[in-house]
Design a protein that fits this description.
The protein contains four helices and ten strands. Strands 1, 2, 3, 4, 5, 6, 7, 8, 9 and 10 form a ten-stranded mixed sheet that branches. The protein is globular. Helix 1 packs across helix 3. It has 264 residues and is of the alpha/beta class. The chain has one domain.
Length: 264
């Protein structure tokens, strides 16, 4: 596979979700109503640092951004020591693992995966940042790195995209596809941080409280390797002329995998 063009870059971001049971109705840009179970707000999500120094500062910025106490945002994050090999980026129960490696010419810059059980409760998450592309001059910039890590971490809280049309002007949020992350080329808004609507959406997703918690303490769940399209199962839906696809893989015993992918 050749290096992706600048025009098609964010059509290559993949968002993968591992789920155990049926999801609840989604809010405006939530992903299927998936959320961390917790008994009080605000709550803390630990971000395991499995990235190299080149990524460390960008992970710190993303953690700071998503922890802002704005518009009733209940999410707080803390960067902690990672517990996985970045190449494999296996999940750790009760937290996120954030990894970078040269994952190859996969067509994606970043992938976020969340494991869900009990209907729609997130139990663990991973983010992979693909240095095969970030080591090139096109993507090895502060704007691209801030944008991608911000978006992928946002997915692990249960957020979907606000807009998936990467040719339209920026909305001023990292949860928006774009060809111009900081808006410097087209004079658009800066898409490298969350915006008000992201914080408001998190407040909606986490309005109710649960009787238990999956944050930092949850049952052990599958650590299956879900890196390649061959592991994603049956194609269930195609939109945008094949640009967006949904796959489902059933592991039995009430556990299944749903993968959402946007291709070039």
């Amino acid at each position: 596979m050749t290096r992706p063009s600048r025009r098609s870059t964010m059509a290559m971001l993949a968002f993968a979700l591992v789920v155990a049971l049926q999801s609840s109705p989604s809010a405006t840009h939530s992903w299927g109503g998936y959320h961390w179970a917790r008994t009080a707000n605000p709550f803390l999500v630990q971000l395991g640092n499995d990235v190299n120094p080149a990524w460390g500062a960008y992970l710190a910025v993303a953690s700071f951004d998503w922890s802002q106490d704005l518009y009733r945002n209940p999410v707080r994050t803390a960067v902690v020591s990672g517990r996985t090999n970045p190449r494999n980026c296996r999940p750790t129960s009760g937290q996120d693992e954030i990894c970078n490696a040269t994952y190859g010419n996969t067509g994606w810059l970043g992938v976020a995966q969340i494991w869900v059980s009990g209907g729609n409760h997130i139990t663990q998450g991973t983010v992979k940042l693909n240095d095969t592309y970030f080591n090139t001059s096109t993507y090895n910039t502060p704007a691209w790195r801030r944008f991608v890590v911000c978006q992928e971490v946002g997915h692990t809280f249960g957020l979907d995209h606000q807009n998936t049309n990467f040719n339209e002007p920026n909305l001023g949020t990292c949860m928006d596809y774009t060809n111009d992350p900081d808006g410097s080329v087209h004079g658009w808004l800066d898409n490298t941080h969350p915006n008000q609507h992201d914080y408001e959406e998190l407040a909606i997703i986490y309005t109710h409280l649960d009787s238990t918690t999956t944050v930092t303490s949850s049952p052990a769940v599958s650590r299956a390797n879900l890196d390649s399209p061959s592991s994603w199962g049956q194609l269930m839906k195609t939109t945008r002329g094949g640009r967006a696809q949904v796959f489902e893989r059933d592991f039995g015993n009430g556990e299944r995998v749903v993968t959402f992918v946007i291709w070039a």
